[in-house]
Write a structure and sequence with these properties.
It contains seven helices and ten strands. The protein is an alpha/beta fold. It has an eight-stranded parallel β-barrel with strand order 1-2-3-4-5-6-7-8. A two-stranded antiparallel ribbon has the order 9-10. It is globular and about 40 Å long. The chain starts with a strand and ends with a helix. InterPro entries: Aldolase_TIM, PRAI_dom, RibuloseP-bd_barrel, TrpF_fam.
């Protein structure tokens, strides 16, 4: 299963995450305690291997804002965490991850109205759009037909529940606050999370 470490603001934890198996690194350009400037994001991205996905997180952006930050930083994937419409998503000429706040199974139904290949399922909204460290009931995922969409699971993930998250059969796990201490990325927690995901197989796969 793939892993995205989100909310990076410094080169060292980004490179450490990649060395330990992270498949994607996320940069928050929306209002957040993890918000990063395009200049700093560019510096980090320039140090990352080409094969690592560089994801920019936006909330209700304009097309001009997206295009400007893409050109300035080198991000290759756009993650939309606001109230963007399906039509707006369709108009973006880059790979899209559309995020949804999930509280009940009913919230899953709207994902099929969006034309993106990747959907990120996050916990209930708090002060910010995402990144609130709250998990939803993952059991509702097993009864829903996602069709061809690839699911990125977020919200409340941490080294302690990473093994349980593997059983959801999501395409990718997205962690941010769960690998932090005192609001900063914690290298030990990053390694512990990545080790758990990359070195653990669900029981069904082992049989």
């Amino acid at each position: 299963m793939k892993v995205k470490i989100c909310g990076l603001q410094n080169v060292e934890p980004a490179l450490f995450a990649v060395r330990n198996g992270a498949d994607a690194i996320g940069f928050v350009f929306a209002e957040s305690k993890r918000q990063i400037t395009p200049l700093m994001a560019k510096q980090i991205i320039s140090a990352l291997p080409k094969e690592v996905k560089k994801v920019g997180v936006f909330v209700n952006p304009t097309m001009e804002e997206i295009e400007k930050i893409v050109s300035e930083t080198g991000i290759d994937t756009v993650q939309l965490h606001g109230n963007e419409t399906p039509e707006f998503c369709q108009s973006i000429p880059y790979p899209i991850i559309k995020a949804f706040s999930i509280e009940s199974a009913r919230d899953l139904e709207k994902i099929h109205t969006y034309p993106c290949e990747f959907v990120l399922l996050d916990g209930p909204k708090g002060k910010y759009h995402g990144g609130n460290g709250i998990a939803f009931d993952w059991n509702i995922l097993s009864c829903f037909d996602f069709k061809e969409k690839k699911v990125i699971l977020a919200g409340g993930l941490n080294p302690e529940n990473a093994a349980a998250a593997l059983k959801t059969n999501a395409y990718m796990l997205d962690v941010s606050s769960g690998v932090e201490s005192n609001g900063q990325k914690d290298l030990n927690k990053i390694k512990k999370f990545l080790d758990c995901v990359k070195n653990t197989q669900p029981m069904e796969e082992i049989k």
